[in-house]
Input
Amino acid sequence: MSLRFSPLPTPIDGLHLLERRRIGDERGFFARLFCAEDLAPFGWDGAAVQINESLTRIPGTVRGLHYQNPPFAEHKLVTCVAGRVLDVAVDIRKGSPTFLQSFATELSAENGRSLLVPRGFAHGFQALTADVHLVYAVSTPYSAEHEAALHCLDPAIGIDWPLPVVNLSPRDSGHAFITQTFEGVALQ
Output
């Protein structure tokens, strides 16, 4: 029996919302969180080099919108294993027809969905419940020198956060808004 991911449509090429198949009975369920082979048809190329977990305690908290510049640009598979979040990806690929467009979706322990964020996207989320746990599989090691971010309240992106934004970290609140000189991330 294969445990594959079922794709759900998004309006941005290369960005994939995936539903994990769960095998369950009266005891609960089993679901695969990550499998490079299963994710290859959706653009994942290689292994996961890190698996990270975050805990966000307070509803309304926003983390992000983070990304890494080449050569450390990363694929990121984001899964919520407790609570609920509004998960957001912003296309920052230089020359993309959907440049600066965002896609937002609810990820929760209940809905069994993951967002596969490709290289050239900024990523962030807002906690919709208390004590949210996210698990991230990433394709590239973290590099502080290549890390960058967009401000989550930037009107050029216009994300409609469902709760008032609270608890921004000093780092996230200090990110500048996009200027006319921002060309995005060149992946080639």
The chain is about 5% helix and 40% strand. The chain has one domain: 5-173. The first strand starts at residue 5 and ends at 8. The mean pLDDT is 95.
